[in-house]
Amino acid sequence: MAITRLACLLTLLSTHCYFSVLAVVLRTNNESPWTDEFDKIELSCLIESISTLNPRIEWKKIKNEGPSYVYFDKKVSGDLENRAVIREPATLVITNATRSDTAKYRCEVTAPDDQKSFDEIVIDLTVRVKPVMPKCSVPKSVPVGKSAELSCLEEEGFPKSQYQWFKNREEIPEDPKTSLKFLNSSYTLNADSGTLNFIAVRKEDAGEYYCRAKNDAGYAECAPQTMEVYDIDILGIILGVLVVVVVLLCITVGICCAYKKGYFSGQKQAGNNYKVPSKGDGVDYVRTDDEGDFRHKSSFVI
């Protein structure tokens, strides 16, 4: 009985070994590698077992538009043609990674002489890009009690940048209640969008502001900009309105008086202006040469 069991065990082991030899099996050291832009990165594709001497090895880049060949017929192609090599037996080495290399890559090995003749692994590569200097917008002056929005935007960094705001070189916390210095401030800070919104500006909110955009690859900052906060002069505004009303009233009165005195009359009579009157019944009107006025002369028509 013991001999029979031993024979069965040896049979199972030999069968397992037989199938492992006749099967192509792949593995990788890192399924989600990352690197900074312009650095070197290896996408490891290791063949654990195979019996075919010259297997077919292919690499494909997988993006939303579909897969495209990276390594085919023993040649690197596409946008990696001059920036990548194959390290035996199947590892892809990118010597100068760029942001466009961020994608999923599939290593495929076909072994015709193996019973399990095909295997593949997928590697998700991330190329990190340091942010560039963000575009910052800070209002130059804001009246006390009014709202104000400070904005910050950076679109080059990958992964997407997170934002920090600083006032007079001190970081502004996302929650003002966590800092004694900003406890009385009324603002909201969105680290994802980069906006800093003051609900009601105080005199203490005046100062120099700048923004920092950061991700895993690094950070960049915009130049500091000054925001002034001023009081609204209510008394001055009221006096200014009263002055304008008085001036408008004086102008109106002056125009009315001018109309009454005839300064805006459309017709004026001068000494040399003369309009021939229409003839009456049997009466002629003659102007003398020596006088500037008129004298009427009676005449009868027989």
From TrEMBL:
One term of GO molecular function: protein homodimerization activity
Superkingdom of origin: Eukaryota
Signal peptide range in chain numbering: 1-23
Annotated ranges, domain Ig-like: 39-119, 134-228
Location, primary (coarse class): other
Transmembrane segments: 234-259
SUPFAM superfamilies: Immunoglobulin
Keyword Plastid tagged: no
Similarity annotation: Belongs to the immunoglobulin superfamily.
Protein name per its UniProtKB record: Ig-like domain-containing protein
Record organism: Mugilogobius chulae (yellowstripe goby)
